[in-house]
Design goal:
The chain is mostly helical. The protein is built from 14 helices and no strands. It has helices at 27-46, 51-73, 76-110, 116-120, 136-167, 171-184, 188-202, 209-233, 237-245, 250-261, 263-278, 282-287, 306-316, 319-350. Helix 5 packs parallel to helix 8, helix 7 crosses helix 8 and helix 9 runs antiparallel to helix 10. It is flat, with a radius of gyration of 30 Å. The mean pLDDT is 85.
């Protein structure tokens, strides 16, 4: 008995294109401009006078519009990716705008008074409410106090980090790490009170720039330890093993291999610590007292500093004193910026050469 073979229709799967619709490259920029316009319009319509509110509304509209437009054209999967990218950009802008605004206001107001006379004269003989005077005595005090604090804290912090990474182990290293973490969060006023109680009250020394430097060193030390520790951990163990395999002692391996490899990160960490203590006012107010005179001796007598000078001049409240406060703030920012540039140059100079 023969069976007839019947042809059955074969289901054909429709071909999907390898490429799908994509938004033009100018879409993010156009969406951003539209979001800014929408934020301004909503802010004006709601009667909001704060431009911060306008910016937050514009950021929210930008994220929502990006998701809606991308979902319509490219699909939900690509929309989620674009939303994540948009959130990164929004956070970046939210971080940069206050910094640029701060820099612009400080520069625009500080340049009104900042000149050669302001940098080379003190407030000796000038009333705080009057125009004139300069910041030389405060700049000199800041340089000396920060320099002494760095000479105290940087070697101790560096050697402590070397011990924790290269030699440390057991309960002692755990205890040191714990106390370093605790010291990282100590308020500056506590460090100032500690030095005031020991150096001034118990030992009987008077106010001086050195007393302020010791308090600043306490604040600086844990930052140096933690940053240096992390940089030393990034050095590959193969470099240490190769050096030790050649019969080189461990101390020389650390000095000639480990530290030069991590010198860039170590320098950056030290500069971050210096930037932190440069703007501290509370320890200086407690231990250095401040003065209108030029005192080049940090070990005897009251001294001034840039943060304390800014605080004192702004507290007076007159137009002349407030202008001097802005100019001193600009000098302080420039001082930290110059230190960072010098540190980057030293790090690049001392970094190990990778080419032939």
């Amino acid at each position: 008995m023969s069976h007839a073979v019947q042809d059955r229709p074969v289901a054909v799967t429709p071909r999907r294109p390898l490429s799908h619709a994509r938004l033009p490259r100018w879409t993010p920029a156009a969406t951003a401009l539209g979001s800014i316009a929408a934020g301004i319009g909503i802010g004006l319509g709601a009667g909001w006078h704060s431009k911060v509110q306008w910016g937050l509304v514009a950021a929210l509209v930008f994220v929502l519009a990006t998701y809606a437009i991308t979902t319509k054209v490219e699909g939900s999967r690509q929309a989620k990716d674009r939303v994540a990218t948009s959130l990164v950009w929004v956070c970046f802008v939210l971080a940069v705008v206050p910094l640029l605004s701060l820099a612009w206001v400080t520069i625009s107001k500080g340049l009104e008074v900042l000149d050669g006379y302001f940098l080379t004269h003190s407030m000796n003989g000038v009333l705080d409410a009057e125009a004139g005077g300069g910041v030389y005595h405060a700049l000199l005090g800041t340089i000396e106090q920060v320099g002494i604090a760095t000479l105290i804290a940087a070697p101790i912090g560096l050697l402590t980090a070397v011990y924790l990474v290269e030699y440390g182990g057991g309960k002692l290293a755990s205890a040191v790490t714990f106390f370093v973490d605790v010291m990282t969060g100590i308020p500056s006023i506590v460090a100032g009170l500690f030095v005031l109680a020991t150096w001034n009250l118990i030992l009987g020394f008077g106010p001086s720039g050195f007393a302020g430097s010791m308090a600043l060193a306490i604040l600086m030390m844990p930052v140096v330890v933690r940053s240096t520790e992390e940089m030393l951990k990034l050095v590959p163990n193969e470099l240490r093993e190769a050096s030790l395999a050649l019969g080189i002692p461990k101390w020389r391996t650390i000095l000639k291999v480990v530290l030069p490899t991590a010198i860039g990160g170590i320098t950056t960490g030290v500069m971050l610590a210096i930037a932190r203590i440069t703007g501290e006012t509370a320890p200086v107010l407690l231990l250095v007292f401040g003065t209108k005179l030029i005192n080049p001796n940090p070990f005897e007598g009251a001294q001034s500093s840039l943060p304390l000078y800014v605080y004192e001049q702004y507290a007076v409240g007159t137009d002349a004193s407030v202008a001097r406060a802005w100019a001193a703030a600009l000098v302080l920012i420039a001082f930290v910026m110059i230190l960072n540039l010098v540190a980057r140059g030293i790090a690049r100079w001392k970094a190990p050469k990778t080419g032939r």
